[in-house]
Amino acid sequence: MSPVRQWRILFAFLCLGPGALLRPGGVTAKEARYCGAGATLRLSSPVSSQGSLLLVELKSARPLTEVKGDWGGRSVPFWQEEGHEAVHAGLLGVDLEKAPGRYELKVTAQKAAGEKIVCSANITVRAGKFATERLRVGKEFVEPNPEQVKRANEERDRLREIFDRVTPERLWNGKFRVPLDGVAAGSNFGKRRILNGNPGSPHGGADLPGTTGTPVHAAQRGRVVLADELFFAGNTLVLDHGLGIYTFYGHLSEISARVGDTLEAGDVLGKVGATGRVTGPHLHWGLTVERARVNPLQIVKLLGP
Ligand SMILES: [Zn+2]
Q1: How far does the centroid of ligand 1 lie from the alpha carbon of residue 128, in Å?
Q2: Alpha helices (H) along the chain
Q3: 206: CA distance to ligand 1 center in Å?
Q4: Which of 200, 205, 278, 291 has its CA 20 to 30 A from that of 95?
Q5: Is the pLDDT of residue 160 over 90?
Q6: What does the DSSP assignment read for 111-131?
Q7: Is the pLDDT confidence value at 132 over 80?
Q8: Mean predicted confidence (pLDDT) in 162-166
């Protein structure tokens, strides 16, 4: 039984049969609702918060095709569960800075006979509970010189272009793992630093503890789309797992794969280091799902052991 099937649905939920009208507000349901035409839609959690990840499952009595999800203009990548052509799963990423509120998830699919299924659910996004750190430091630490600013901006745009690309096929199968052996938790996700009164961008990944030289493993199978030295993240590797899902590994002392390489889950991609703007060695691990920056440890929880 997949984990999503074990969870109960407690959020305001609204399912529509073909041609039905969308009712505002939704219906509160304690179980997943019948969507019409023998299909049900379930979510791993009734509510979400900034930086979190939800697992969505559409299950039908008959095989479905053209399963698509839309969440506030962003697509939700779906895949067919191995050996179950009537079960489709998808990941919904809630960006770290998505405004709290209520958003409609709409899932559409096609039955073999051509009949269309439309399911919708209202998902509440709550503010994330992130730490804030206020620091007073010398000017030289706060303001990079114009050349460094230019470089950092170019690298930000380059990463944005990578995360905007959605490889249509799923390149992995199975569970995601934490990239460091023996590490189960990370810190600093979403933390915001206020330097001399100026708020900076929130910290978009989880920092995993490790000493320089510790092997870093691929969280899952994927293709290397970036292996380079960046201003902030130092030696960095980005893996494309398909369906708009990317993992990011920063501050490496060594990178041991090249752009274009396909790595299997658990393959060593480099070593922990302290390159880039850091105070000590650790692994900065990031996860992007359809451009949403989410806590990477959540994918291990949802699709992990
Ligand atoms: Zn970090």
Answers
A1: 18
A2: 3-6, 139-142, 146-164, 297-303
A3: 6
A4: 278
A5: yes
A6: ETTS-EEEEEEEEEEEPP---
A7: yes
A8: 96
* Ligand 1 mean position, distance from CA 76 (Å): 26
- How much is the pLDDT for 33? 63
Per-residue tokens: 139: 């000017």
CA of 277 to the centre of ligand 1 (A): 9
Please give the backbone phi and psi of residue 22, each rounded to the nearest 5 degrees, phi first.
-75, 125
Domain count of the fold of the chain: 2
For residue 181, give its domain range: 132-303
41 pLDDT more than 80: yes
Residues 6+ apart with CB under 8 A from 153: none
Round to whole Å and give the CA distance between 83 and 60.
14
Identify whether residues 145 and 97 lie together within a single domain: no
Same domain, 122 and 173: no
**Ligand 1 centroid from CA 33, angstroms:** 40
| CATH number of domain containing 63 | 2.60.40.1930
Residue 295 · residue 285 · CB < 8 Å: no
Please choose, from the candidates 103, 98, 100, 23, the residue with its C-alpha nearest in 3D space to the C-alpha of residue 56.
Answer: 103
185 CA to centre of ligand 1 in angstroms:
13
pLDDT averaged over every residue in the chain: 85
This model of the complex carries an ipTM of 0.99
- pLDDT score recorded for residue 17: 27
The CA 205 to ligand 1 mean position distance, Å, reads 6
Tens-digit pLDDT profile for residues 267-281? 999 999 999 988 899
Q: Which two tokens stand for residue 40?
A: 């049900």
Pairing mode of beta strands 192-195, 132-135? parallel
* Contact between 141 and 121 (Cβ < 8 Å): no
